[in-house]
Amino acid sequence: MPLEILEPTSDPSQREGLWTLNFGPQHPATHTTLRLVLTLDGETVVNAEPDIGFLHSGFEKLGEVLDFNQYVTIVDRMNYISPLANEIAWHHACEKLLGIELTPRCTYLRTILAELMRIHDHLLCVGACILDLGGISAFMYAFNERERIYELCEQASGQRFHTSFTRVGGLLFDVSDQWLANLKDFISTFPAVFKDVNRLVLKNRIFIERCQGVGILSREEAISGGATGPVARASGVTRDLRTDEPYLAYADLDFNVICSRAGDCFSRFQVRMLEIEESLKIIGQALQKLPGGPIFAEGSGKEMLPQKREVYTSIEGLIHHFEAIMPNRQMQPPKESLYAATESPNGELGFYIVSDGTFRAYRARTRPPSLVHFALFPQLIRGCMLSDVVAVLGSLNIIAAELDR
Amino acid sequence: MNSAESQLKYEAALSGLAGARSWSTFRDTLQLVIDEASLVSTMTRLRGAGLNMLMDVTAVDLLEYFDSIDRYRVVYQLLDTELGSRLEVRTHVNDPEPVLPTMTTLWASADWMEREVYDMFGIKFDGHPNPKRLLLPEEFASFPLRKDYPVKGRGERHNFPVVTRSES
After folding, report:
1. How far A327 CA sits from the closest chain B CA (Å)?
2. Measured between beta carbons, which residues in chain B are less than 8 angstroms from residue A367?
3. What is the pLDDT of residue A110?
4. What are B75-131's pLDDT values in tens digits?
5. Which of A226, A245, A354 is the closest to B109 by Cβ?
6. Are A291 and A105 in contact (CB under 8 A)?
7. Residue among A53, A60, A350 whose CB faces B145 most closely
8. β-bridge mates for residue B24, sequence order
9. Mind listing the pLDDT tens digit for each residue in A255-274?
């Protein structure tokens, strides 16, 4: 008797012979701790159900007990690939609430640091993803350069990773001339290495074939799903907070917003790689225009933190520090609520602060880009192959610490 | 478009709708407070007026807030991707059964954000396609971002059931 050939039903989830695969929580390609429950038909992904929360550590609850300057150490640990970008976003929201105008030097320094972090984040995203897809060389070149950015962070703040460098109204330290010379050295030598990385990634035939046409996100889906940053720009949403709602020094600097129409994994990597070039342009211009002067907001009297050198060497500095630290003498923000966002490397990183008139948030909500992007994952992967999971995950750049907070 | 112009635009879009509305501006951010009952109709009109992206959904427990009458404030951050104007919409819900209609029919991004609000505050969203906890385990009994929940926790971590290899 001949075997009866069954017509596949139209609804893939009703097909017979489906099997379930647990992807993660400990899998080298998730990089961090997250779990996907994949329903597979052979090697085709029929459905993916993300299971998150493994790294939930109550950051937002801690934001209610720590003051605006203390909470920066926690904010650091959200997207630990670009810690300074989180610090800048957090203090951007605090300063907007308190109505503090930054000094020109602080504005430019923060702009430089934010762009360094963008290069840093994009190099990791692209480098780690091509490693997962089987290309080791580009990863090595990219990580070499990331090491140099870590060194710059260490020279500026004393910390490689979790710098905790920003303060309300300023920065922990001013940077030295040596640091500026090192930064100049970095931006003059980086383009040559970047050219190599670029060729190893965007001209790599295997990489192109693994990524092109995979995980397509249409413009409508991107808008409805709340996608921001490189993910949205790769789908044709031409939004970039640096130009649309200029903050820091971005209004004075000349750069392009990189967009693509394709919306697949490859275009997301392309956008990231081209953004690195724009970031270099921004750093170069900001370095040229870098003004002198103080790094803490002027005319703010006792409220701002003094420089550490003054605290340790003079009685005035110590009193000043005491006044800035004691809860009953700190700055008092208006009893209002406010949402403020910056363009972090991953997308719109916003903070919603509810203030009850003390120097501590009554509620400190983070709007993490990773959470919103990971919610898009099931619809991107449906119908793709099992091996595409790695490419799509990598192109969204999910950082689980930021996802779970 | 500044906040005064966008207020005029959205006021016009909402004209004729029932329910009390109050507008305010703080540091050039436009804020709108509405009734819980008029949430769906207001949001549908605002979606039609060009606010096509739901940036954020979050809640605030106002238990210890200085002048609050209501218990929870739910906040929606809306954005117009073409014009770049933003609007913050607030509404209030109360114990014992804090429930709001879901926004997943208007914006897909509401899905996980509303799950997170449920997870942290216990506010339910009526009509949500997948009303489960997002970050915490399903057997977790309390809602940690409420103000009556201690920062130290209530010993949940120490009392997690141990699953041995032979039982799994």
Report:
1. 18
2. 55-56, 58, 77
3. 92
4. 999 998 888 888 999 999 988 889 999 989 989 999 999 999 999 998 999 889 988
5. A226
6. yes
7. A60
8. B31
9. 999 998 888 899 999 999 99
Among candidates A359, A319, A362, which has minimal Cα distance to A168?
A359
pLDDT tens, residue by residue, A267-317: 999 999 999 999 999 999 999 988 888 887 765 555 677 778 888 998 988
Which amino acid makes up residue A322? F
- Please, which residues 347-376 of chain A have a Cβ atom closer than 8 Å to chain B? 348, 350, 352, 354, 356-357, 362-363, 365, 367, 371-372, 374-375
ipTM value of the model?
Answer: 0.90
Q: State mean pLDDT over A373-382.
A: 90
* Alpha-carbon span A194 to A142, nearest angstrom: 8
Taking CA atoms, A12 is separated from A6, A28, A51, A297, A384, in Å, by: 13, 29, 22, 60, 13
The Cα B11–Cα B14 span in angstroms is: 5
Long-range contacts of B147-153 (CB under 8 A, 24+ apart): B147/B61, B147/B63, B147/B64, B148/B63, B151/A58, B151/A61, B151/A62, B151/A64, B151/A65
Confidence (pLDDT) at A323: 81
The two three-digit tokens of residue A228, written as one number: 């921001």
- What number is the average pLDDT over the span B139-166? 84
**pTM attached to this predicted model:** 0.89
For A339, the closest of B88, B135, B145 (CB atoms) is B88
CA dist B84 and B50 (Å) reads 10
**Is residue B101 reached through a cis peptide bond, with omega within 30 degrees of 0 on the bond before it?**
no
| Distance from the Cα of residue A76 to its chain's centroid | 11
Q: How many CA atoms lie within 13 A of A101 on its CB side?
A: 3
